[in-house]
Amino acid sequence: MATTQEYGLGEFTFPRGWFMVAESAKVTDKPQGVKFFGQEFALYRGKQSGKVILLDAYCPHMGTHLARNSTSYVAMDGSVEGDSIRCPYHAWRFGPDGKCNQIPYSPGPIPPQAKVRSWKVEEHMGAVFVWHDPEGGEPDYDIPVIPECNDPAWVPIAFDDLGLVNCHTQEIVDNITDVAHFGPIHGSLTKYFENEFKGQVAVQRMGGGHRTLTTDDGPMLETVATYTGPSILITKMVGTHESYIYIAHTPVDDGSAYVWHGLMVKSPSGAAQYNEQDVAIARQYQEMALAAFAQDFEVWKHKRPNIKGLYVQGDGPFIKQRAWYKQFYNPRAMREELLKGVEGIHHARGIEPAPASKAA
Ligand code: FES
Ligand SMILES: [Fe+2]
């Protein structure tokens, strides 16, 4: 596994952006320890507000992990009270703002340093996201959501938890520019392909056949895959079913990532309100989509780091994409400079551009 520095991405080890940290359904009032950006966190749902709370994991008293405990009486009795959480060691209690609001055995005042960092989290589409910014700034873009996420004609998204992969996130993001892998990995016949970079957005437009997602005589599979920020990829897919593939990856350590996959399908029956059968077909289609994604995932799992590829004519615009990705690893003030010569539409030699830009 190679590090951000080895990839030469920039001055920050972990990128700026919105990152998925959990499926909503899995966050309860039983706190869990999670690790992202090389740090430990305590993640739980407040009993009072129902809101998700993400705190730095280590208690300022004596450094105990607030969430990785199952044997303390505090933990066994339930360490979440209202929206606060009690440390399993000496029962100091921390509010959702991260400030200690009770030390049960100490009559003295609570020292102002008795606090942990509380992170900015939001819930959308059944997932929990955190804003991570090495410069400490406020979000400069919204969490991308599937436009039809509340439309009853669409079967709601379900997530597949793929877990940890020991490759740097750069290798995952490379996929957006990788036109030449579609044939060998996915069995697809790429008819057209292009990338477009603009600000924090990277788009891939692709059309062709796909052995695992459509049949030989089936409709052409056309996809528009969009990264909004460094980690959330939403792919609109027109083929057997109108659907969206949702892929989120979040750095765990410098050189590893946690990955989720999800699919949202327009009710195959065409009904304004999806029914049980639609759900069954959607989940079946999800399995096929997951199988296609697993084809990429297996490569990432076993490859060595690709610090500097041996690219040839016909490869996608990897160099431009890696330059685009650098904006998240550097101060915002450098963004304009970093995106010079990167923004715009880029093609791969010998591959047709997407129909719209061909006509343009
Ligand atoms: S270490 Fe947390 S209360 Fe003592
Ligand atoms: Fe792929």
Automatic annotation (TrEMBL):
Superkingdom classification of source: Bacteria
The protein, known as: 3-ketosteroid 9alpha-monooxygenase subunit A
GO MF, any single term: monooxygenase activity
GO process terms (BP): cholesterol metabolic process
Coiled-coil regions listed: none
Keywords: 2Fe-2S, Iron, Iron-sulfur, Metal-binding, Monooxygenase, Oxidoreductase
Domain Rieske: start-end pairs: 18-130
Cofactor(s) annotated in UniProt: Fe cation
